[in-house]
Amino acid sequence: MTKKDPYKILGVSGNATQDEVKRAYRQLAKKYHPDRNPNDGSAEANFKEVQAAYEVLGDPQRRAQYDRFGAGGPAPDIHNWASGGASPFEDMRVDFGGIGDLTSVFEQFFSRGGARPRRRSTARQAQPRGADLEHVVELSFEEAARGTTRDVLLTAGGTGAQPERIEIRIPAGVNDGQRIRVKGKGQEGPGGRGDLMIRCRIRAHAYFRRDGHDILLNLPLTLTEAALGTKVEIPTLDGPAVVTVPPGTSSGTKLRLRGKGVRDQRSGDVGDLFAVVRIIAPRRLSTRARELLEQLRDEVDEQPRRNAGWPV
């Protein structure tokens, strides 16, 4: 980093957003931080330049002043940066084009004219937090629907830090791929620790599946059960329940059990369970069974394709 243009130091364009400037600063500050580069004078010098460049570009007002006057242009009037009236900076002029070290500019800002240097606590607050961490947890269908807890072992501290075990609460109703934020459990940084992001992965169930906060369950029925009607015991998250199949039920019909779905995290409402009818035709027929079905075909005058509007 030999050029003293703050944009070049941070590696961003003049059109970069404030968020892009902040991200670039965090990456470089982490890269050159003295704690990560002990006894490396070059890294320390780069770290100081990055800090100084962010002092210019991280503050929208200072950035606008630099963009306006820039290197080679007219020197900015520091007095205009004050809130008005007499200012200890009134007679001070700074030419950004001829500076040898950006850090010295800010030493002037906070030491001349009786201005007090910032306190360490304020400086720390201005520093970026550490990076966020991501940890994937695998959940069963039931755990995701009802909620559960997981123990996570973190190694987010610096060199020699002891692993930290924390208990994570997984709320009821999480979706596959959903992230849960745990504040202050990420990597260490100059401005404090980042956050821990828990990403949920939900294993497929043998017969349940999710549709929002509703649960779908295929319900296999025989021809006679669907035609004559019946009562069937089905599984739910709360245990077995009985569903009534009306006579003449068609394949694809959804039979509802209210309140047997998944709880909504925000509203607290609970979805429903739908048993989706699937009529299973017999694969093997005895001679007598075939005769009975043929009699049923002749006896029942059903024309489903014509009723559906087909040209038959």
Task: Describe it.
It is built from ten helices and eleven strands. It has 312 residues and is an alpha+beta fold. It folds into three domains: 6-126, Orthogonal Bundle (Helix Hairpins); 133-202, HSP40/DNAj peptide-binding domain, CATH 2.60.260; 208-307, Sandwich (HSP40/DNAj peptide-binding domain). The strands form four sheets. The protein has a four-stranded mixed sheet with strand order 6-7-11-10. β8 (230-234) and β9 (241-245) form a beta hairpin. α2 (18-32) packs antiparallel against α3 (41-57). The chain starts with 5 loop residues before the first helix and ends in a 5-residue tail after the last helix.
Rounded to the nearest angstrom, the distance between the terminal CA atoms is: 81 Å
SSE topology string? HHHHHHEHEEEEEEHEEEEHH
Beta strand %: 15-25%
CATH fold-type name of the largest domain? Helix Hairpins
| Strand line-up in the sheet with most strands | 6-7-11-10
Largest sheet: 4 strands, mixed
Q: What integer is the average pLDDT?
A: 80
- Form type: elongated
From the helix content, strand content and strand pairing, which structural class follows? alpha+beta
Uncertain segments are: 72-121
The CATH homologous superfamily of the largest domain: DnaJ domain
Estimated helix fraction: 25-40%
The domain count comes to 3
Rg value: 34 Å
Which architecture name of the largest domain does CATH use? Orthogonal Bundle
CATH class of the largest domain: Mainly Alpha
Q: In DSSP terms, counting alpha (H) and pi (I) runs of 4 or more, how many helices?
A: 10
Please count the beta strands (DSSP E, at least 2 residues each). Answer: 11
